[in-house]
Amino acid sequence: MSGQGRDLSCDVLVIGSGAGGLSTAITARKCGLDVIVVEKDQYFGGTTAFSGGVLWIPGNRHARDAGVADSREAARTYLKHETGNHFDDAAIDAFLDVGPRMLDFFETETEAKFVLSAYPDYHPDVDGGAKLGRSVTVAPYDARALGEEIRRLRPPLETITFIGMMFNSSNDELKHFFRVTSSLGSAIYVAKRLASHLWDLARYRRGVKITSGNALAARLARTVFDLGIPLLTATPALRLISCNGVIAGAVVSDAKGEYEITARRAVVLASGGFPHDEARIARAYPHLARGGEHLSPAPSSNTGDGIRMAEEAGGSCDIRFSNAAAWMPVSRVPLGNRTGAFPHLVDRYKPGVIAVNRHGRRFTNESDSYHDVGAAMIADGAGGRETAAWLICDHATIRKYGLGYAKPAPVPVGTFVRNGYLKRGATLRELAMAAGIDAGGLEATVGEYNEGAAQGIDRAFKRGSTAFNRYLGDGEHKPNPNVAPIGAGPYYALKIIMGDLGTFDGLTTDVVGRVVRHDGSAIAGLYAVGNDRASIMGGNYPGAGITLGPIMTFGYITGRHLAGQQA
Q1: Selection from 117, 128, 212 nearest residue 168 by Cα
Q2: If you average pLDDT over residues 259-264, what whole number do you get?
Q3: How far is CA 329 from the centre of its chain?
Q4: Signed CA dihedral, 432, 436, 437, 439: sign only
Q5: Coil, strand or helix: which one is 502?
Q6: What mean pLDDT comes out for the span 109-138?
Q7: Which of 52, 63, 194, 372 is most enclosed, with most CB atoms within 10 A?
Q8: Which pLDDT value is given to residue 538?
Protein backbone atom coordinates (compact mmCIF):
# COMPACT_ATOMS: atom_id res chain seq x y z
CA MET A 1 0.00 0.00 0.00
CA SER A 2 1.31 3.44 -0.86
CA GLY A 3 -0.19 6.88 -0.95
CA GLN A 4 0.27 10.62 -1.46
CA GLY A 5 -1.74 12.77 0.90
CA ARG A 6 -4.88 10.83 1.75
CA ASP A 7 -5.03 8.94 -1.55
CA LEU A 8 -3.83 5.33 -1.49
CA SER A 9 -2.79 2.74 -4.05
CA CYS A 10 -2.60 -1.04 -4.11
CA ASP A 11 -2.73 -3.95 -6.49
CA VAL A 12 -6.22 -5.10 -5.49
CA LEU A 13 -8.97 -3.13 -3.79
CA VAL A 14 -11.66 -5.32 -2.17
CA ILE A 15 -14.97 -3.65 -1.33
CA GLY A 16 -16.64 -5.62 1.47
CA SER A 17 -15.42 -7.71 4.41
CA GLY A 18 -17.57 -10.84 4.49
CA ALA A 19 -16.23 -14.28 3.60
CA GLY A 20 -16.17 -13.42 -0.10
CA GLY A 21 -14.11 -10.29 0.30
CA LEU A 22 -11.77 -11.64 2.96
CA SER A 23 -11.12 -14.97 1.20
CA THR A 24 -10.24 -13.08 -2.00
CA ALA A 25 -8.02 -10.63 -0.12
CA ILE A 26 -6.17 -13.39 1.75
CA THR A 27 -5.61 -15.47 -1.39
CA ALA A 28 -4.35 -12.50 -3.40
CA ARG A 29 -2.00 -11.44 -0.59
CA LYS A 30 -0.67 -14.99 -0.19
CA CYS A 31 0.09 -14.87 -3.91
CA GLY A 32 2.18 -11.74 -3.43
CA LEU A 33 -0.25 -8.94 -4.23
CA ASP A 34 -0.73 -5.71 -2.28
CA VAL A 35 -4.36 -5.59 -1.05
CA ILE A 36 -6.65 -3.11 0.72
CA VAL A 37 -10.11 -4.00 2.05
CA VAL A 38 -12.72 -1.30 2.64
CA GLU A 39 -15.97 -1.88 4.52
CA LYS A 40 -19.00 0.40 4.62
CA ASP A 41 -20.13 -0.72 8.08
CA GLN A 42 -18.43 0.06 11.38
CA TYR A 43 -17.99 -3.70 11.79
CA PHE A 44 -16.20 -6.24 9.61
CA GLY A 45 -17.65 -9.68 8.88
CA GLY A 46 -20.66 -8.85 6.72
CA THR A 47 -23.50 -11.34 6.48
CA THR A 48 -20.99 -14.10 7.23
CA ALA A 49 -20.86 -12.98 10.86
CA PHE A 50 -24.61 -13.63 11.17
CA SER A 51 -24.52 -16.98 9.37
CA GLY A 52 -24.20 -20.59 10.50
CA GLY A 53 -20.58 -20.75 9.36
CA VAL A 54 -21.25 -23.87 7.26
CA LEU A 55 -19.57 -24.57 3.90
CA TRP A 56 -20.96 -27.09 1.39
CA ILE A 57 -17.87 -28.65 -0.19
CA PRO A 58 -18.39 -32.06 -1.85
CA GLY A 59 -15.22 -34.15 -1.77
CA ASN A 60 -13.75 -32.42 1.26
CA ARG A 61 -10.98 -34.21 3.18
CA HIS A 62 -12.91 -34.26 6.46
CA ALA A 63 -15.49 -36.54 4.88
CA ARG A 64 -12.79 -38.72 3.34
CA ASP A 65 -11.00 -38.99 6.70
CA ALA A 66 -14.28 -40.06 8.31
CA GLY A 67 -14.78 -42.76 5.68
CA VAL A 68 -17.87 -41.13 4.16
CA ALA A 69 -18.46 -42.43 0.64
CA ASP A 70 -19.21 -39.83 -2.04
CA SER A 71 -18.17 -38.99 -5.57
CA ARG A 72 -17.77 -35.93 -7.72
CA GLU A 73 -20.17 -37.47 -10.24
CA ALA A 74 -22.89 -37.85 -7.60
CA ALA A 75 -22.48 -34.26 -6.46
CA ARG A 76 -22.62 -33.02 -10.04
CA THR A 77 -25.76 -35.07 -10.70
CA TYR A 78 -27.36 -33.62 -7.58
CA LEU A 79 -26.49 -30.06 -8.60
CA LYS A 80 -27.82 -30.63 -12.11
CA HIS A 81 -31.15 -31.63 -10.61
CA GLU A 82 -31.18 -28.78 -8.09
CA THR A 83 -30.19 -25.96 -10.44
CA GLY A 84 -32.40 -27.07 -13.34
CA ASN A 85 -32.30 -24.69 -16.30
CA HIS A 86 -29.70 -22.54 -14.54
CA PHE A 87 -27.06 -25.29 -14.45
CA ASP A 88 -23.74 -23.70 -15.47
CA ASP A 89 -21.30 -26.43 -16.55
CA ALA A 90 -18.15 -24.32 -16.30
CA ALA A 91 -18.95 -22.76 -12.94
CA ILE A 92 -20.18 -26.01 -11.38
CA ASP A 93 -17.13 -27.92 -12.59
CA ALA A 94 -14.82 -25.21 -11.22
CA PHE A 95 -16.59 -25.33 -7.87
CA LEU A 96 -16.42 -29.11 -7.60
CA ASP A 97 -12.78 -29.24 -8.71
CA VAL A 98 -11.45 -26.35 -6.64
CA GLY A 99 -13.67 -26.46 -3.53
CA PRO A 100 -11.71 -29.20 -1.73
CA ARG A 101 -8.39 -27.51 -2.60
CA MET A 102 -9.71 -24.18 -1.34
CA LEU A 103 -10.65 -25.77 1.97
CA ASP A 104 -7.20 -27.35 2.31
CA PHE A 105 -5.55 -24.01 1.50
CA PHE A 106 -7.46 -22.07 4.15
CA GLU A 107 -6.95 -24.74 6.80
CA THR A 108 -3.22 -24.95 6.05
CA GLU A 109 -2.40 -21.31 5.35
CA THR A 110 -4.81 -19.35 7.58
CA GLU A 111 -6.53 -19.35 10.96
CA ALA A 112 -9.63 -20.98 9.43
CA LYS A 113 -10.38 -24.45 10.81
CA PHE A 114 -13.37 -26.67 10.06
CA VAL A 115 -14.98 -29.87 11.30
CA LEU A 116 -17.26 -32.31 9.50
CA SER A 117 -20.91 -31.41 9.94
CA ALA A 118 -23.69 -33.97 10.45
CA TYR A 119 -26.00 -32.04 8.08
CA PRO A 120 -27.55 -34.15 5.32
CA ASP A 121 -28.21 -32.48 1.98
CA TYR A 122 -31.54 -30.68 2.09
CA HIS A 123 -32.97 -33.08 -0.51
CA PRO A 124 -31.01 -36.22 0.33
CA ASP A 125 -33.32 -38.63 -1.49
CA VAL A 126 -32.94 -36.88 -4.85
CA ASP A 127 -30.59 -38.58 -7.32
CA GLY A 128 -27.05 -37.75 -6.23
CA GLY A 129 -28.10 -36.43 -2.83
CA ALA A 130 -26.09 -37.36 0.26
CA LYS A 131 -27.06 -38.06 3.85
CA LEU A 132 -23.65 -36.98 5.20
CA GLY A 133 -20.29 -35.55 4.28
CA ARG A 134 -20.71 -32.48 2.08
CA SER A 135 -21.06 -29.82 4.76
CA VAL A 136 -18.31 -28.64 7.10
CA THR A 137 -18.69 -26.19 9.97
CA VAL A 138 -16.14 -23.67 11.16
CA ALA A 139 -14.55 -24.60 14.49
CA PRO A 140 -15.39 -22.43 17.53
CA TYR A 141 -12.99 -19.57 18.25
CA ASP A 142 -11.83 -17.48 21.17
CA ALA A 143 -12.39 -13.95 19.93
CA ARG A 144 -9.81 -12.63 22.40
CA ALA A 145 -7.25 -13.71 19.78
CA LEU A 146 -8.32 -10.61 17.82
CA GLY A 147 -6.92 -8.34 20.53
CA GLU A 148 -8.17 -4.79 20.20
CA GLU A 149 -9.79 -5.65 16.87
CA ILE A 150 -12.51 -7.56 18.74
CA ARG A 151 -14.41 -4.28 18.99
CA ARG A 152 -14.75 -4.18 15.19
CA LEU A 153 -16.02 -7.75 14.79
CA ARG A 154 -19.72 -7.71 13.93
CA PRO A 155 -21.66 -9.07 16.92
CA PRO A 156 -23.81 -12.14 16.26
CA LEU A 157 -27.47 -11.67 15.41
CA GLU A 158 -29.00 -10.50 18.69
CA THR A 159 -32.20 -12.51 18.48
CA ILE A 160 -30.49 -15.91 18.22
CA THR A 161 -28.19 -15.49 21.19
CA PHE A 162 -29.00 -15.82 24.86
CA ILE A 163 -27.81 -12.56 26.45
CA GLY A 164 -25.15 -12.51 23.76
CA MET A 165 -24.10 -16.15 24.25
CA MET A 166 -23.51 -18.21 21.12
CA PHE A 167 -23.87 -21.95 20.62
CA ASN A 168 -24.49 -24.19 17.65
CA SER A 169 -28.14 -25.06 17.25
CA SER A 170 -27.57 -28.78 16.89
CA ASN A 171 -24.74 -29.51 19.30
CA ASP A 172 -24.67 -31.04 22.77
CA GLU A 173 -24.37 -27.65 24.48
CA LEU A 174 -27.82 -26.59 23.31
CA LYS A 175 -29.23 -29.88 24.59
CA HIS A 176 -27.99 -28.98 28.08
CA PHE A 177 -30.03 -25.78 27.94
CA PHE A 178 -33.14 -27.73 26.89
CA ARG A 179 -32.62 -30.13 29.82
CA VAL A 180 -31.76 -27.55 32.45
CA THR A 181 -34.90 -28.23 34.51
CA SER A 182 -34.80 -32.00 34.19
CA SER A 183 -31.13 -32.92 34.56
CA LEU A 184 -28.81 -32.02 37.42
CA GLY A 185 -25.78 -32.45 35.16
CA SER A 186 -27.25 -30.08 32.59
CA ALA A 187 -28.18 -27.57 35.28
CA ILE A 188 -24.58 -27.54 36.55
CA TYR A 189 -23.22 -27.21 33.01
CA VAL A 190 -25.53 -24.29 32.21
CA ALA A 191 -24.69 -22.52 35.49
CA LYS A 192 -20.97 -22.71 34.74
CA ARG A 193 -21.47 -21.60 31.15
CA LEU A 194 -23.56 -18.62 32.23
CA ALA A 195 -21.05 -17.58 34.89
CA SER A 196 -18.21 -17.68 32.36
CA HIS A 197 -20.24 -15.73 29.82
CA LEU A 198 -21.23 -13.03 32.31
CA TRP A 199 -17.57 -12.59 33.20
CA ASP A 200 -16.74 -12.15 29.51
CA LEU A 201 -19.51 -9.56 29.15
CA ALA A 202 -18.11 -7.61 32.07
CA ARG A 203 -14.59 -7.63 30.61
CA TYR A 204 -15.18 -7.39 26.85
CA ARG A 205 -18.81 -6.19 26.56
CA ARG A 206 -19.54 -9.21 24.37
CA GLY A 207 -19.25 -12.98 24.36
CA VAL A 208 -15.79 -14.20 23.37
CA LYS A 209 -16.50 -17.92 22.97
CA ILE A 210 -17.86 -17.59 19.46
CA THR A 211 -19.18 -20.13 16.98
CA SER A 212 -20.81 -20.33 13.56
CA GLY A 213 -20.29 -17.51 11.09
CA ASN A 214 -19.05 -15.17 13.79
CA ALA A 215 -16.12 -17.54 14.31
CA LEU A 216 -15.49 -17.75 10.56
CA ALA A 217 -15.43 -13.96 10.20
CA ALA A 218 -13.07 -13.69 13.18
CA ARG A 219 -10.72 -16.41 11.89
CA LEU A 220 -10.50 -14.86 8.42
CA ALA A 221 -10.01 -11.39 9.88
CA ARG A 222 -7.23 -12.63 12.17
CA THR A 223 -5.40 -13.84 9.06
CA VAL A 224 -6.02 -10.52 7.29
CA PHE A 225 -4.42 -8.67 10.20
CA ASP A 226 -1.52 -11.13 10.40
CA LEU A 227 -0.83 -10.57 6.69
CA GLY A 228 -0.78 -6.80 7.16
CA ILE A 229 -3.78 -6.18 4.92
CA PRO A 230 -5.42 -2.84 5.82
CA LEU A 231 -9.11 -3.42 6.70
CA LEU A 232 -10.74 0.00 6.74
CA THR A 233 -14.18 -0.04 8.39
CA ALA A 234 -16.70 2.81 8.26
CA THR A 235 -15.25 3.48 4.80
CA PRO A 236 -17.93 3.09 2.11
CA ALA A 237 -17.01 3.00 -1.56
CA LEU A 238 -18.90 5.74 -3.38
CA ARG A 239 -18.03 5.23 -7.04
CA LEU A 240 -15.57 3.43 -9.25
CA ILE A 241 -12.68 5.14 -11.03
CA SER A 242 -12.41 4.36 -14.74
CA CYS A 243 -9.30 5.13 -16.79
CA ASN A 244 -9.34 4.46 -20.54
CA GLY A 245 -12.14 1.92 -20.12
CA VAL A 246 -10.40 0.06 -17.29
CA ILE A 247 -11.61 0.11 -13.68
CA ALA A 248 -8.64 1.53 -11.81
CA GLY A 249 -9.88 2.05 -8.25
CA ALA A 250 -12.65 3.70 -6.28
CA VAL A 251 -13.55 6.86 -4.46
CA VAL A 252 -14.20 6.07 -0.79
CA SER A 253 -15.08 8.16 2.22
CA ASP A 254 -14.56 8.16 5.96
CA ALA A 255 -15.09 10.59 8.81
CA LYS A 256 -12.53 12.97 7.27
CA GLY A 257 -14.11 13.03 3.82
CA GLU A 258 -13.57 11.52 0.38
CA TYR A 259 -10.36 10.16 -1.07
CA GLU A 260 -9.22 7.82 -3.84
CA ILE A 261 -7.77 4.32 -3.69
CA THR A 262 -6.07 3.35 -6.93
CA ALA A 263 -6.01 -0.35 -7.82
CA ARG A 264 -3.28 -1.36 -10.28
CA ARG A 265 -4.84 -4.77 -11.06
CA ALA A 266 -8.49 -4.80 -10.09
CA VAL A 267 -11.37 -3.76 -7.90
CA VAL A 268 -13.27 -6.70 -6.37
CA LEU A 269 -16.89 -6.09 -5.38
CA ALA A 270 -17.95 -8.04 -2.27
CA SER A 271 -20.56 -5.80 -0.70
CA GLY A 272 -23.15 -8.44 0.22
CA GLY A 273 -25.75 -8.37 -2.52
CA PHE A 274 -28.96 -6.34 -2.32
CA PRO A 275 -31.20 -7.59 0.56
CA HIS A 276 -31.81 -4.01 1.72
CA ASP A 277 -32.04 -2.32 -1.67
CA GLU A 278 -35.74 -1.49 -1.37
CA ALA A 279 -36.30 -0.64 -5.02
CA ARG A 280 -34.60 -3.78 -6.33
CA ILE A 281 -36.19 -6.25 -3.91
CA ALA A 282 -39.61 -4.74 -4.65
CA ARG A 283 -39.11 -6.03 -8.20
CA ALA A 284 -37.29 -9.25 -7.34
CA TYR A 285 -39.39 -10.59 -4.44
CA PRO A 286 -42.87 -11.74 -5.51
CA HIS A 287 -44.45 -11.27 -2.09
CA LEU A 288 -43.28 -7.64 -2.04
CA ALA A 289 -44.40 -7.07 -5.60
CA ARG A 290 -47.97 -7.97 -4.59
CA GLY A 291 -47.92 -5.73 -1.49
CA GLY A 292 -46.67 -8.04 1.26
CA GLU A 293 -43.97 -7.43 3.84
CA HIS A 294 -40.39 -8.58 4.20
CA LEU A 295 -37.96 -8.47 7.14
CA SER A 296 -34.36 -9.39 6.38
CA PRO A 297 -31.97 -10.26 9.22
CA ALA A 298 -29.03 -9.55 6.88
CA PRO A 299 -26.94 -6.49 7.83
CA SER A 300 -28.81 -3.29 7.03
CA SER A 301 -25.71 -1.93 5.27
CA ASN A 302 -26.17 -4.44 2.43
CA THR A 303 -28.00 -2.04 0.14
CA GLY A 304 -26.63 -3.19 -3.20
CA ASP A 305 -23.82 -0.62 -3.48
CA GLY A 306 -21.46 -2.94 -5.35
CA ILE A 307 -24.13 -3.94 -7.85
CA ARG A 308 -25.09 -0.31 -8.43
CA MET A 309 -21.47 0.69 -9.11
CA ALA A 310 -21.00 -2.28 -11.46
CA GLU A 311 -24.15 -1.38 -13.40
CA GLU A 312 -22.88 2.19 -13.78
CA ALA A 313 -19.74 0.67 -15.31
CA GLY A 314 -21.77 -1.48 -17.73
CA GLY A 315 -22.33 -4.64 -15.68
CA SER A 316 -25.66 -6.43 -15.48
CA CYS A 317 -27.70 -7.79 -12.60
CA ASP A 318 -30.68 -9.58 -14.07
CA ILE A 319 -33.50 -10.87 -11.90
CA ARG A 320 -33.25 -14.35 -13.39
CA PHE A 321 -34.16 -16.76 -10.59
CA SER A 322 -37.70 -17.54 -9.51
CA ASN A 323 -36.29 -17.44 -5.97
CA ALA A 324 -34.11 -14.34 -5.94
CA ALA A 325 -32.90 -14.88 -2.38
CA ALA A 326 -32.29 -17.53 0.25
CA TRP A 327 -35.72 -17.38 1.89
CA MET A 328 -35.90 -17.46 5.67
CA PRO A 329 -39.18 -17.40 7.60
CA VAL A 330 -38.78 -14.85 10.41
CA SER A 331 -40.84 -13.36 13.20
CA ARG A 332 -40.84 -9.77 14.44
CA VAL A 333 -39.37 -9.58 17.96
CA PRO A 334 -40.26 -6.60 20.17
CA LEU A 335 -36.97 -5.30 21.62
CA GLY A 336 -38.02 -2.29 23.62
CA ASN A 337 -38.50 0.60 21.20
CA ARG A 338 -37.21 -1.37 18.21
CA THR A 339 -37.89 -4.61 16.35
CA GLY A 340 -35.59 -7.54 15.68
CA ALA A 341 -35.87 -10.42 13.22
CA PHE A 342 -35.83 -13.97 14.58
CA PRO A 343 -34.90 -16.58 11.91
CA HIS A 344 -36.85 -19.82 12.41
CA LEU A 345 -34.02 -22.30 12.05
CA VAL A 346 -34.92 -24.95 14.63
CA ASP A 347 -38.40 -24.71 16.15
CA ARG A 348 -40.27 -25.78 12.99
CA TYR A 349 -38.63 -29.21 13.14
CA LYS A 350 -39.81 -30.09 16.64
CA PRO A 351 -42.65 -32.55 17.27
CA GLY A 352 -45.87 -30.83 18.28
CA VAL A 353 -45.29 -27.68 16.20
CA ILE A 354 -47.23 -27.15 12.97
CA ALA A 355 -47.58 -24.20 10.57
CA VAL A 356 -50.90 -22.99 9.16
CA ASN A 357 -52.00 -20.20 6.85
CA ARG A 358 -54.69 -17.60 7.52
CA HIS A 359 -57.31 -20.21 6.66
CA GLY A 360 -56.02 -22.42 9.47
CA ARG A 361 -54.69 -24.98 6.99
CA ARG A 362 -51.25 -26.55 6.73
CA PHE A 363 -49.57 -25.92 3.40
CA THR A 364 -46.13 -27.58 3.57
CA ASN A 365 -43.80 -29.91 5.42
CA GLU A 366 -42.69 -27.72 8.32
CA SER A 367 -39.44 -29.71 8.69
CA ASP A 368 -38.17 -28.92 5.21
CA SER A 369 -35.36 -26.36 4.85
CA TYR A 370 -36.03 -22.72 5.64
CA HIS A 371 -35.70 -21.90 1.93
CA ASP A 372 -38.23 -24.57 0.92
CA VAL A 373 -40.68 -23.50 3.62
CA GLY A 374 -40.22 -19.88 2.55
CA ALA A 375 -40.91 -20.75 -1.08
CA ALA A 376 -44.02 -22.64 0.04
CA MET A 377 -45.18 -19.59 2.03
CA ILE A 378 -44.73 -17.37 -1.02
CA ALA A 379 -46.64 -19.80 -3.23
CA ASP A 380 -49.40 -20.20 -0.65
CA GLY A 381 -49.85 -16.43 -0.41
CA ALA A 382 -50.10 -15.94 -4.17
CA GLY A 383 -53.83 -15.28 -4.03
CA GLY A 384 -53.62 -12.25 -1.72
CA ARG A 385 -51.45 -9.43 -0.45
CA GLU A 386 -50.19 -11.04 2.75
CA THR A 387 -47.52 -13.75 2.80
CA ALA A 388 -47.53 -15.16 6.32
CA ALA A 389 -47.99 -18.28 8.39
CA TRP A 390 -48.59 -19.10 12.04
CA LEU A 391 -46.66 -21.65 14.09
CA ILE A 392 -49.07 -23.49 16.40
CA CYS A 393 -48.32 -25.60 19.49
CA ASP A 394 -49.68 -26.58 22.88
CA HIS A 395 -48.40 -25.55 26.31
CA ALA A 396 -46.30 -28.66 26.95
CA THR A 397 -44.50 -28.22 23.63
CA ILE A 398 -43.60 -24.56 24.09
CA ARG A 399 -42.29 -25.24 27.59
CA LYS A 400 -40.12 -28.07 26.29
CA TYR A 401 -38.74 -26.52 23.10
CA GLY A 402 -39.66 -22.85 23.13
CA LEU A 403 -41.17 -21.17 20.08
CA GLY A 404 -39.17 -18.62 18.12
CA TYR A 405 -37.68 -16.01 20.43
CA ALA A 406 -39.74 -17.38 23.34
CA LYS A 407 -37.42 -19.67 25.27
CA PRO A 408 -38.31 -23.02 26.87
CA ALA A 409 -38.80 -23.48 30.61
CA PRO A 410 -37.78 -22.10 33.01
CA VAL A 411 -37.94 -18.77 31.09
CA PRO A 412 -41.50 -17.42 31.62
CA VAL A 413 -43.71 -17.46 28.56
CA GLY A 414 -46.15 -14.79 29.80
CA THR A 415 -43.78 -11.97 28.87
CA PHE A 416 -44.08 -12.89 25.20
CA VAL A 417 -47.88 -13.02 25.39
CA ARG A 418 -48.06 -9.63 27.06
CA ASN A 419 -45.81 -7.91 24.52
CA GLY A 420 -47.78 -9.41 21.63
CA TYR A 421 -45.06 -11.66 20.27
CA LEU A 422 -47.19 -14.74 21.02
CA LYS A 423 -50.93 -15.21 20.87
CA ARG A 424 -52.53 -17.54 23.43
CA GLY A 425 -55.92 -19.17 23.76
CA ALA A 426 -57.47 -21.65 26.17
CA THR A 427 -59.02 -23.44 23.17
CA LEU A 428 -58.06 -23.66 19.52
CA ARG A 429 -61.02 -21.49 18.62
CA GLU A 430 -59.99 -18.85 21.11
CA LEU A 431 -56.42 -18.98 19.78
CA ALA A 432 -57.62 -18.60 16.21
CA MET A 433 -59.66 -15.54 17.12
CA ALA A 434 -56.67 -13.97 18.89
CA ALA A 435 -54.36 -14.63 15.94
CA GLY A 436 -56.76 -13.73 13.14
CA ILE A 437 -56.90 -17.28 11.76
CA ASP A 438 -60.04 -19.04 10.53
CA ALA A 439 -61.21 -20.95 13.61
CA GLY A 440 -63.04 -23.73 11.81
CA GLY A 441 -60.09 -24.36 9.55
CA LEU A 442 -57.66 -24.55 12.48
CA GLU A 443 -59.85 -26.94 14.45
CA ALA A 444 -60.29 -29.19 11.43
CA THR A 445 -56.57 -29.12 10.61
CA VAL A 446 -55.49 -30.03 14.14
CA GLY A 447 -58.05 -32.85 14.21
CA GLU A 448 -56.84 -34.26 10.90
CA TYR A 449 -53.18 -33.89 11.85
CA ASN A 450 -53.64 -35.52 15.25
CA GLU A 451 -55.19 -38.66 13.75
CA GLY A 452 -51.87 -39.71 12.29
CA ALA A 453 -49.58 -37.84 14.67
CA ALA A 454 -50.49 -40.14 17.55
CA GLN A 455 -48.64 -42.87 15.61
CA GLY A 456 -45.88 -40.51 14.43
CA ILE A 457 -47.36 -40.21 10.93
CA ASP A 458 -47.87 -37.05 8.91
CA ARG A 459 -50.40 -38.14 6.31
CA ALA A 460 -50.54 -34.80 4.53
CA PHE A 461 -46.86 -33.92 4.00
CA LYS A 462 -44.79 -36.93 5.16
CA ARG A 463 -42.93 -34.93 7.74
CA GLY A 464 -39.96 -36.84 9.15
CA SER A 465 -39.55 -38.94 6.02
CA THR A 466 -36.06 -37.65 5.07
CA ALA A 467 -32.74 -37.63 6.86
CA PHE A 468 -32.72 -33.84 6.73
CA ASN A 469 -36.19 -33.58 8.32
CA ARG A 470 -35.07 -35.80 11.16
CA TYR A 471 -31.71 -34.08 11.71
CA LEU A 472 -33.13 -31.04 13.53
CA GLY A 473 -36.05 -32.85 15.14
CA ASP A 474 -36.01 -34.35 18.62
CA GLY A 475 -34.09 -37.61 18.32
CA GLU A 476 -35.41 -38.77 21.69
CA HIS A 477 -39.04 -38.49 20.59
CA LYS A 478 -40.33 -41.76 19.15
CA PRO A 479 -41.34 -43.00 16.66
CA ASN A 480 -40.93 -39.80 14.59
CA PRO A 481 -38.61 -37.00 15.78
CA ASN A 482 -40.68 -34.41 13.89
CA VAL A 483 -44.26 -35.46 14.65
CA ALA A 484 -46.35 -35.38 17.81
CA PRO A 485 -50.04 -34.57 18.40
CA ILE A 486 -51.23 -31.10 19.41
CA GLY A 487 -52.32 -31.88 22.97
CA ALA A 488 -54.15 -30.02 25.72
CA GLY A 489 -54.32 -26.23 25.94
CA PRO A 490 -53.58 -23.51 26.45
CA TYR A 491 -52.40 -23.09 22.87
CA TYR A 492 -49.94 -20.67 21.29
CA ALA A 493 -49.58 -19.06 17.86
CA LEU A 494 -46.61 -17.15 16.47
CA LYS A 495 -46.88 -15.22 13.22
CA ILE A 496 -44.00 -15.67 10.76
CA ILE A 497 -43.35 -13.60 7.66
CA MET A 498 -40.76 -13.73 4.90
CA GLY A 499 -37.13 -12.78 5.33
CA ASP A 500 -33.89 -13.82 3.67
CA LEU A 501 -30.31 -14.81 4.43
CA GLY A 502 -28.99 -12.94 1.41
CA THR A 503 -29.68 -12.63 -2.28
CA PHE A 504 -29.12 -15.28 -4.96
CA ASP A 505 -29.48 -13.01 -7.99
CA GLY A 506 -26.45 -10.82 -8.61
CA LEU A 507 -23.95 -9.58 -11.15
CA THR A 508 -23.21 -11.71 -14.18
CA THR A 509 -19.57 -12.83 -14.14
CA ASP A 510 -17.36 -15.36 -15.84
CA VAL A 511 -15.93 -18.27 -13.87
CA VAL A 512 -12.96 -16.33 -12.47
CA GLY A 513 -15.22 -13.50 -11.35
CA ARG A 514 -14.81 -10.84 -14.04
CA VAL A 515 -17.98 -8.74 -14.28
CA VAL A 516 -19.40 -9.00 -17.78
CA ARG A 517 -21.68 -6.78 -19.82
CA HIS A 518 -24.95 -7.84 -21.44
CA ASP A 519 -23.01 -8.65 -24.61
CA GLY A 520 -20.75 -11.05 -22.69
CA SER A 521 -17.61 -8.90 -22.78
CA ALA A 522 -15.65 -8.49 -19.55
CA ILE A 523 -15.23 -5.10 -17.87
CA ALA A 524 -11.48 -4.73 -17.51
CA GLY A 525 -10.35 -4.45 -13.89
CA LEU A 526 -13.71 -5.27 -12.29
CA TYR A 527 -14.54 -8.50 -10.43
CA ALA A 528 -17.35 -9.65 -8.16
CA VAL A 529 -17.43 -12.28 -5.41
CA GLY A 530 -19.76 -13.24 -2.58
CA ASN A 531 -23.41 -12.28 -2.90
CA ASP A 532 -22.57 -9.50 -5.35
CA ARG A 533 -22.02 -12.32 -7.86
CA ALA A 534 -25.02 -14.38 -9.03
CA SER A 535 -25.25 -17.71 -7.21
CA ILE A 536 -24.31 -20.88 -9.08
CA MET A 537 -27.26 -22.61 -7.35
CA GLY A 538 -29.91 -21.18 -9.66
CA GLY A 539 -32.10 -19.85 -6.87
CA ASN A 540 -32.34 -23.22 -5.12
CA TYR A 541 -30.90 -24.34 -1.77
CA PRO A 542 -29.43 -27.86 -2.06
CA GLY A 543 -27.74 -28.11 1.32
CA ALA A 544 -26.26 -26.44 4.39
CA GLY A 545 -23.46 -24.11 3.32
CA ILE A 546 -24.29 -23.72 -0.37
CA THR A 547 -23.76 -19.97 0.03
CA LEU A 548 -20.45 -19.87 1.89
CA GLY A 549 -18.95 -22.91 0.14
CA PRO A 550 -19.09 -21.40 -3.36
CA ILE A 551 -18.37 -17.91 -2.00
CA MET A 552 -15.04 -18.94 -0.53
CA THR A 553 -14.23 -21.22 -3.46
CA PHE A 554 -14.72 -18.48 -6.02
CA GLY A 555 -12.99 -15.96 -3.75
CA TYR A 556 -9.99 -18.29 -3.85
CA ILE A 557 -10.28 -18.68 -7.63
CA THR A 558 -10.53 -14.91 -8.13
CA GLY A 559 -7.64 -14.17 -5.77
CA ARG A 560 -5.33 -16.56 -7.60
CA HIS A 561 -6.48 -15.33 -11.01
CA LEU A 562 -5.62 -11.75 -10.05
CA ALA A 563 -2.09 -12.94 -9.29
CA GLY A 564 -1.85 -14.75 -12.63
CA GLN A 565 -2.16 -18.20 -11.08
CA GLN A 566 -4.70 -20.92 -11.84
CA ALA A 567 -6.68 -22.40 -8.98
Answers
A1: 212
A2: 98
A3: 12
A4: positive
A5: strand
A6: 97
A7: 52
A8: 95
Can you give the pTM of this predicted structure? 0.94
CA distances for 299 relative to 50, 274, 336, 340, angstroms:
8, 10, 20, 12
pLDDT at 506 over 70: yes
The two most distant CA atoms of the chain are separated, in Å, by: 76
Cis geometry, peptide bond prior to residue 410 (ω within 30 degrees of 0): yes
Under 8 Å between Cβ of 543 and 556: no
Is a pLDDT exceeding 80 seen at residue 1?
no
Q: Which of 491, 477, 497 is nearest to 413 (CA)?
A: 491
Spatial separation of the C-alpha atoms in residues 520 and 517, rounded to whole Å: 5
- Return d(Cα 353, Cα 373) in angstroms, integer: 14
- Let me know if 257 is exposed, middle or buried by CB neighbors in 10 A (0-12, 13-18, 19+): exposed
pLDDT in tens, 343-386: 999 999 999 999 999 999 999 999 999 999 999 999 999 988 89
List the beta strands (DSSP E) in 395-521. 423-425, 491-503, 514-516
**E strand or H helix at 82:** helix 72-83
pLDDT in tens, 206-235: 778 899 999 999 999 999 999 999 999 999
What residues does 258 pair with on adjacent strands? 253
Segment 17-24 shows an average pLDDT of: 98
Q: Distance (Å, rounded) from C-alpha 12 to C-alpha 525?
A: 9
Residue 300 exposed, middle or buried by CB count within 10 Å (0-12, 13-18, 19+): exposed
User: Who contacts 264 (Cβ-Cβ below 8 Å, separation ≥6)?
Assistant: 9, 10, 11, 248
- Report the chain's mean pLDDT, rounded to a whole number: 94
Work out whether strand 388-394 and strand 354-356 pair parallel, antiparallel, or are unpaired: antiparallel
